[in-house]
Automatic annotation (TrEMBL):
Residues 1-32 form the signal peptide. This is Alpha-galactosidase. It catalyses: Hydrolysis of terminal, non-reducing alpha-D-galactose residues in alpha-D-galactosides, including galactose oligosaccharides, galactomannans and galactolipids. One of its GO terms (molecular function) is alpha-galactosidase activity. Gene3D superfamilies: Aldolase class I (3.20.20.70), Galactose-binding domain-like (2.60.120.260), Golgi alpha-mannosidase II (2.60.40.1180). CDD domains: CBM35_pectate_lyase-like (cd04082), GH27 (cd14792). One of its GO terms (biological process) is carbohydrate metabolic process. Belongs to the glycosyl hydrolase 27 family. The lineage of its organism: Bacteria, Bacillati, Actinomycetota, Actinomycetes, Pseudonocardiales.
Length: 531
């Protein structure tokens, strides 16, 4: 792959700051570039994967992306940067030596475009290369030898983010070239996230010296919209966890989610692994054409929360055996995120334990599946049947330390038409309740309590593809509507749904009432956790 190909899709970073810290020539932790930027991995958009240098890359398109960020809830989900890539400039500088926006693409100029993006509560990013020319064969001027002049111009336009590529670098030492632009950005006085797009090509590797120079750095060549490319980037990046942290991130390149070259399962793996690795989340899809499935992946706030966790820990690999990989990410509140990733072409069971994640010792744990949203409990074993090229992501939390009291469903009361069955293995107690398939079908339990807040977990199975919604009531008052019991894949796959409640002192009646004609899921038990 050519240097030009490697260069053009670099994701984003952050730089702007203080004087040069000592450069380390060995792969040891360096002092971070403490410019206050990119304390969590940057989130946003870059046009390259969508448009490259085609004529559709223009002012109207970028303004439209900013509009979509707002209208589709991407801004609310945390996406901030609207970045433009190569081909925004004319092939020559003006008489003053300044870069010139292409007047056909950007008739209003770059400052006006940045102002528009800022008016939406977003930030604006731009691109150039740490060489004499950028990576496009048209030969747009690069920043080598013009660092302060270009930095001053970018600051005057209101640029918030600079992606600095590596083409046509004339063989000048990478640290020297990237440090020169770092210092130039700092002298402007404007906070500008600085993305080192060096591709991890030269020695010493950029991750061994990048921390005091940039806010993030590319660790790989360019990503392509296919499984082999994407998983290859993940493999290269996942071994570099010790170099990542607040303000300095490993960058395995932009997201391909939604570009059409992978399945939805593969795109969920792509998004999951980038979040687990605390990578920048820069959308590379054409948001003007993005469907509901693509937007649902990009706006999964539970997965985004892993990427944006303030502790800033990149996941490490707990185990990797024949393409079955377990990733572990330590979170700021003491939880763990675990990704069970299947790199093979057939379904496989992947397993680990809470102890292997460094969170052992609790009597039980809550596992929240961040894609299906199903919550279940475990005493420490963590496993899932993972489809080909799929990834299951759990958030693992120690459960409250108080006592757990179990109330079997078959010992409760059900409405007419329901039965107590035993034909699906894996249930607790002597059976489970198979409620009538009707709106209003219900199961209720009598629970004695001292009074106060509790957590309740309902054991259930749902072998259908549709969720089975219910209303949850306590002592005749509905306290939660539309509580979902998602499909578990088979009637023998048992899971849990957990809810926080407040009970009164004495006997309480807890009821689940179906709100769809399918009735409730098969119900196994009610656990009440106090304390």
């Amino acid at each position: 792959m050519s240097a030009s190909t490697f260069a053009r899709r670099c994701a984003a970073l952050a730089v702007a700051a203080f004087a040069l810290a000592p450069v380390l020539s060995v792969p040891e932790p360096a002092l971070a570039l403490e410019n206050g930027l990119a304390r969590t991995p940057p989130m946003g958009f870059n046009n390259w994967n969508t448009t490259q240098c085609r004529a559709e890359f223009d002012e109207a398109m970028i303004k439209g992306i900013a509009d979509i960020f707002v209208s589709q809830g991407l801004k609310d989900a945390g996406y901030t940067y609207v970045n433009i890539d190569d081909c925004w400039a004319l092939p020559t500088r003006n008489a003053r030596g300044d870069l010139q926006p292409d007047p056909k693409r950007f008739p209003g100029g770059i400052k006006a475009l940045a102002d528009y993006v800022h008016s939406k509560g977003l930030k604006f990013g731009i691109y150039t290369s740490a060489g004499t020319k950028t990576c496009n064969t048209a030969g747009f001027p690069g920043g080598l030898g013009h660092e302060q002049q270009d930095a001053n111009l970018f600051a005057s336009w209101g640029v918030d983010y600079l992606k600095y590529d590596n083409c046509n670098n004339q063989g000048v030492d990478a640290r020297k070239r990237y440090t020169a632009m770092r210092d130039a950005l700092a002298k402007t006085g404007r906070p500008i996230v600085y993305s080192i797009c060096e591709w991890g090509r030269t020695d010493p590797k950029v991750w061994t010296w990048g921390e005091p120079v940039g806010n993030l750095w590319r660790t790989t060549g360019d990503i392509s919209d296919n499984w082999t490319s994407m998983i290859g980037k993940a493999k290269a990046n996942r071994v570099l966890a010790r170099y990542a942290g607040p303000g300095h991130w490993n960058d395995p390149d932009m997201l391909e989610v939604g570009n059409g070259g992978m399945t939805a399962t593969e795109y969920r793996t792509h998004f999951s692994l980038w979040a687990m690795m605390a990578a920048p989340l820069l959308i590379g899809a054409d948001l003007r054409k993005a469907g509901a499935e693509t937007l649902a992946i990009l706006k999964n706030t539970d997965v985004i929360a892993l990427d944006q966790d303030p502790l800033g820990k990149q996941a490490t690999v707990v185990s990797s055996d024949g393409g079955l990989v377990v990733y572990n990410k330590v979170l700021a509140n003491g939880d763990r995120a675990v990704a069970l990733s299947n790199e093979n072409t057939s379904t496989a069971t992947i397993a680990t334990t809470a102890s292997a994640l460094g969170i052992g010792g609790a009597p039980s744990y809550e596992l929240k599946d961040l894609w299906s949203k199903v919550t279940r409990t475990t005493t420490g074993a963590i496993s899932a049947s993972v489809p080909a090229h799929g990834t299951v992501v759990y958030r693992v939390s120690k459960r409250a330390g108080g006592p757990v009291t179990r109330f079997e469903a078959e010992a409760g009361t059900m409405s007419g038409g329901g039965t107590i069955d035993t034909n699906h293995a894996g249930y607790s107690g002597t059976g489970f309740v198979n409620g009538a398939n009707a709106v209003g079908s219900h199961v209720e339990w009598k629970v004695d309590a001292a009074g106060g807040p509790v957590r309740v977990s309902f054991g259930y199975a749902n072998g259908s593809t549709a969720s089975r919604p219910v209303d949850l009531s306590v002592n005749g008052t509905v306290v939660a509507t539309g509580v979902l019991f998602p499909g578990t894949g088979a009637w023998t796959n048992w899971s849990t749904v957990t809810q926080a409640l407040t009970l009164t002192a004495g006997t309480n009646t807890i009821r689940l009432t179906a709100t769809s004609a399918d009735g409730p899921a098969n119900l196994d038990y009610l656990d009440v956790v106090t304390g």
